[in-house]
Amino acid sequence: MCYNETVTHKNLYQLFLCSFSQKEDVESEDDAKLEVEELAKTLPQGTDHTPHILSSVLSGLPDRWRNWIIRTIFTWFMIAGFCLIIYGGPLALMVTTLIVQVKCFEEIINIGYAVYRIHGLPWFRSLSWYFLITSNYFFYGENLMDYFAVVINRTGYLRVLVTYHRFISFCLYIVGFVWFVLSLVKKYYMKQFSLFAWTHVALLIVVTQSYLIIQNIFEGLIWFIVPVSMIVINDVMAYMFGFFFGRTPLIKLSPKKTWEGFIGGGISTVILGLLMSYVMCQYRYFVCPIEYSETLGRMTMDCEPSSLFQPQEYTLPKSLEVISRMLNGKSTLTLYPFILHSLSMSLFSSVIGPFGGFFASGFKRAFKIKDFGDVIPGHGGIMDRFDCQYLMATFVNVYISSFIHTATPQKLLQQVYSLKPEQQLQLFQTLRDSLEHRGMLN
């Protein structure tokens, strides 16, 4: 019985709990709820998933060393694949980014689907993928308009998509929103709204970050390759230092992480990141932004490298002059300015980057799972390898817009070419009059 004739503070509290539980009986399916531990068993555990041949060959080794060998083998496979994709150029990198994004989204949505056990609820998976397509249409469309507006405007039937891109994107989202409202089922409201929020958080984490990655690629391949490589270096070297020298636990969210691995990985990232930056600064293929050439009529990566990628001479601080003179007798240092920016990125990837992994570890611990998936033996799912990359992509994009990005004639011409002919003529006349007035044009 929930009600008594005598009402005390304690009884009043029990009465509240009873009324709440009765309300829950009406509005939720708690009677069919399963424990998280049981639901987690339905999800794949990637580090336990190993090819049969490799498992039989390594069967005689202790678990610790067997996992180390498997992880090392597939790490080199991923590095080789990454180098091959870079060789394929910007288009291959963008396609790979889209594929990785879709796979990460799938892994996150699958966790929500399993943990909440809503197999009887309508349209959850369909709605999730619909919102993914809609958000990709919006973000990738923004990139296309920024970098391919000239080409698209020259194609009559695509001009409408450019002009009304945001309105079309909004309409597509509204369709999904109405679809979700119509799919609400009595007694399941809480679960459905939780999963609606789950889907949008997944979109925020995955789609928005992949959009920023594409923007980084268009600024020059070096702005993509160097940060991604720094995260890989930090992850690999932290694992190596932690495996062989790790003794002191770093954080409770990830018990296997150690201070030795964290410090060793950080130092290695700074050193190797600077070396990689120095080498890549010497090749136009990596430093030139991807731009549309009106002369060639196509996208090009050929340019005169900016001052950022040309050697500059810097005067050393007084405190370092003594050391410098002992080594080479100079009080100045010649280097590429990008290396100084690379130092900032290496410090971020070493100090803050691992917290993306800690966040993912906390997420997995909340649902009692070991990995996001089982795509990569010894590593887990795609999301297990890219949890830090998304955080790094955001930092690089913000860094470029804050400290690097400036308006250039090429960028402005992209916008001018997208104007109507009469608008271009008006702009030309206005610019000519201004230059004549200032005495810069006779």
Automatic annotation (TrEMBL):
GO MF, one annotated term: phosphatidate cytidylyltransferase activity
InterPro entries, A to Z: PC_trans, PC_Trfase_euk
Assigned GO CC terms: endoplasmic reticulum membrane
Transmembrane residue ranges: 68-87, 123-140, 160-182, 194-214, 220-246, 258-279, 335-360
Membrane topology: Multi-pass membrane protein
UniProt keyword Lipid biosynthesis present: yes
GO biological-process terms attached to the record: CDP-diacylglycerol biosynthetic process
Main location: membrane
Known EC number: 2.7.7.41
Reactions listed under catalytic activity: a 1,2-diacyl-sn-glycero-3-phosphate + CTP + H(+) = a CDP-1,2-diacyl-sn-glycerol + diphosphate
Pathway: Lipid metabolism; Phospholipid metabolism; CDP-diacylglycerol biosynthesis; CDP-diacylglycerol from sn-glycerol 3-phosphate: step 3/3
Domain of life where this protein originates: Eukaryota
Keyword match Transmembrane helix: yes
Keywords: Lipid biosynthesis, Lipid metabolism, Membrane, Nucleotidyltransferase, Phospholipid biosynthesis, Phospholipid metabolism, Transferase, Transmembrane, Transmembrane helix
Subcellular location: Membrane
Assigned protein family: Belongs to the CDS family.
Protein's UniProt name: Phosphatidate cytidylyltransferase
The organism of origin for this protein: Pogonomyrmex barbatus (red harvester ant)
Lineage start: Eukaryota, Metazoa, Ecdysozoa, Arthropoda, Hexapoda
